[in-house]
Amino acid sequence: MNIAVSVSGFLADSDSYELAPEDPKPGAQEFMAELQKRGHWLIIHDWRANEHNKFTALKNWLFRNGVDFGEIWVSSGKPNADVVLDGLAPGAITDFTTLLQEIG
Hints:
alpha/beta
């Protein structure tokens, strides 16, 4: 399954990877590793990385924090995916354990 995952508000509490180091939310790395272990294709999406020329900062943040992913999507809008995980969306489920059970 293709799963699009937002950094801002989902993997991290903010988009501060652009400004200063911030750790991912507790459990984020394990969540992403488990999804990848289950065979899902993980698409990191963040339009800010394109608009503000921060692609390198985003990529470095992901590598520095050991966040598994398959590709990075920086265009406006959401990538074509079976599931979109965006912590800033109203009513979004952001509990990693619940999501692992729901996604499978």
